[in-house]
Design a protein that fits this description.
The complex is a heterodimer of chains A (223) and B (354). With 223 residues, chain A is mainly α. Chain A is 83% helix and 0% strand. The longest helix of chain A is centred in the first third of the chain and has 36 residues. Chain A is elongated, with a radius of gyration of 20 Å. The model of chain A has no long low-confidence stretch (mean pLDDT 91). With 354 residues, chain B is of the alpha/beta class. Chain B is built from 13 helices and 14 strands. In chain B, the strands form three sheets. In chain B, strands 6-7-8-3-9-10 form a six-stranded mixed sheet, with helices on both faces. In chain B, strands 2-1-4-5 form a four-stranded antiparallel sheet. The chains are: A mainly alpha (223), B alpha/beta (354). At the A-B interface, helix 7 and helix 8 of A face helix 3 and strand 6 of B.
């Protein structure tokens, strides 16, 4: 072990700490972006042409905003929203500061995924629910979220995995976590074994999330 | 607020749905499409009312006026005395609960079990879980599917899915059941069993049924009254018996002809035969065809060769058609005799263009 991972062994505690930072950034930003993205995805679904609360003007504006935010490369987004970050968090470095760009970076992606997923819920089922006298809010949580649940879990898994990728990028510019260790120590100091260990830990996280997500989605798939 | 339209008690009991000069138009790009064109209809409580027409005739739009899934551009929709345009959103939703609806593609929720699908309309009601369950099982019993309660819709056949959909539509004890081509995706045998179920529910529960279809068999099997729709207009309506006996419009005749496969027989006969005297006979009501034809053959010494015959029961009325190849010197006198017996006779060659 000492031969294979000479530097990583001595940095065990740092790597553990970085892992926890990555988990922290991923979890908090997933929760916040998840709620924002789900809400916006639902609003997009309801207001889109043919939706149950169709509103072309509102939809077009929201749709463009989501597209715009999705088009900004994350590394640029990190820099460009630093004033917002320092306004909200008081600083632009550290794991908590990274939450702001992470949320802004991932929620439009998630919102779009949710919208695409909910489009799969057939118009016939929606019409049936309307014919039973359900209002739009009831249709959202009894039909859309219920019928779309398995697919929502699938896109959530996908989104969390993308988010882990973003945390490492944020890490490289001062947010800490495994990305930071891999780049600023492993890469910058030519300690390739450190980078390798970071990658293995990240892969393990991704596989674990994928596995849990698949199991849950399969459980809720009834057809 | 809703207001009850000023109708006498008797009228209110009689008429449950009234459309007054309703128009629905859609804007498609620069075109204005009139889906429902000044339609007036009255549907009586407890009857089975059928609307027939080809696709694109405006049937689906018309039927959605009844539960206000479609708003009229102009005209009035009155259901059970309530003018729908006067209702507030909340009242609509309450009123829609009194109108069950079933669909061509069933529209069940795949993520819920059969029982949960049936219970679904009751989720907003103040019922305990066990009460809801009991009600759901009762409804499944009504449609004969209790053993499938815990299955998921994807495990069911088309006919079973429609039974579940019917049970679901009845969950709120509706006064009206609206059927949007409910049997169009089913095979003939299953269609018949679903129609029999609807008829049974109509008789047992007294639920008024409004259905749309493009199949005349559906009309003749269960409907009391029928409206024929073409290009957004009701071109003919009345008791099924009356309309079948004396169709006024070409389209109606076409639909009736399809029910007895007469078109197919005619074109086959016209193609394959160059006989001189082929006649098309139509019997309605009490006239029993066999006897009349035999009598004519004997009386006028005519040899009658039956090329096609079909007898059908339509709402307790016998409708029969026959295509005969007649030979003899007194064929014309024989024809006159048939006409005297109130049989409609036409020479087939005249109908070549159909």
């Amino acid at each position: 072990m000492k031969h294979l991972f000479p530097h990583a062994i001595t940095m065990q505690n740092d790597i553990l700490h970085a892992t926890l930072e990555t988990i922290y950034m991923t979890t908090i930003s997933a929760l916040v972006a998840g709620l924002i993205g789900l809400a916006i995805g639902l609003v997009l679904t309801l207001t889109q042409p043919g939706g149950i609360a169709e509103d072309r003007i509102f939809y077009n504006i929201l749709d463009k905003i989501v597209n715009l935010l999705r088009s900004i490369p994350f590394i640029i987004l990190l820099a460009i929203i630093s004033p917002l970050t320092s306004f909200l968090v008081g600083t632009t470095v550290g794991t908590t500061a990274a939450l702001v760009p992470l949320v802004v970076g991932i929620f439009p992606f998630y919102a779009r995924q949710i919208q695409i997923t909910l489009q799969e819920v057939g118009p016939g089922v929606i019409e049936a629910a309307q014919s039973m006298g359900l209002n739009n809010i009831e249709i959202v949580y009894r039909v859309f979220l219920r019928e779309g649940l398995a697919d929502i879990i699938r896109v959530t898994t996908l989104t969390i995995i993308s988010l882990i990728g973003l945390t490492t990028m944020a890490g490289a510019v001062g947010a800490g976590g495994l990305g930071n260790v891999a780049i600023s120590i492993g890469y910058a100091r030519f300690q390739n074994d450190v980078t390798f260990v970071c990658m293995v830990i990240l892969l393990a996280m991704v596989f674990a999330i994928q596995f849990i997500g698949d199991q849950m989605a399969n459980y809720f798939t009834k057809f | 607020m809703a207001r009850k339209v000023g109708v006498s008690m008797e009228d209110a009991r009689q008429t449950i749905i009234k459309l007054q000069d309703t128009v629905v138009t859609f804007k498609r790009k620069n075109d204005l499409i009139t889906a429902v064109d000044h339609v007036s209809l009255e549907i009586k409580r407890g009857e089975i009312f059928g609307i027939i027409g080809y696709s694109g005739a405006g049937k689906s739009t018309l039927i959605r006026l009844i539960n206000h899934l479609q708003l009229p551009t102009s005209g009035k929709v009155i259901v059970d005395g309530d003018v729908l345009e006067d209702l507030e959103q909340r009242q609509f939703q309450a009123m829609r609960k009194k109108i069950g609806m079933i669909f061509q593609h069933f529209n069940l929720m795949n993520s819920r079990t059969v029982l949960n699908n049936v219970e679904f309309p009751l989720l907003g009601e103040k019922l305990s879980k066990s009460e809801r369950r009991a009600k759901g099982m009762d409804l499944l019993q009504l449609v004969g599917l209790t053993e499938m309660a815990d299955a998921f819709p994807t495990q069911l056949s088309g006919g079973q899915k429609q039974r579940v959909a019917i049970a679901r539509a009845l969950a709120n004890n509706p006064d009206i059941l609206v059927s949007d081509e409910a049997t169009s995706a089913l095979d003939p045998k299953t269609t018949l069993s679903i129609l029999k179920l609807l008829q049974h529910l109509n008789r047992q529960l007294g639920v008024t049924i409004v259905l749309i279809t493009h199949e005349i068999q559906v009309i003749q099997t269960i409907c009391n009254r029928v409206a024929v729709m073409e290009q957004g207009k009701i071109i003919e309506q009345g008791n099924v018996t009356e309309v079948f006996r004396r169709p006024k419009k070409q389209l109606t005749r076409e639909f009736i002809d399809t029910s007895i496969n007469i078109q197919e027989a005619l074109s086959r006969i016209q193609k394959n035969n160059d006989r001189q005297k082929i006649y098309f006979l139509k019997f309605v009501g009490e006239t029993t065809n066999q006897v009349v034809v035999t009598e004519m053959a004997q009386k006028f010494n005519i040899s009658a060769n039956i090329l096609f015959a079909n007898v059908d029961q339509i709402d307790n009325l016998t409708v029969g058609v026959m295509i005969l190849d007649l030979h003899g010197s007194e064929v014309n006198a024989g024809i006159d005799f048939l006409r005297d017996q109130s049989v409609e006779v036409e020479e087939v060659v005249k109908r070549v263009d159909i």
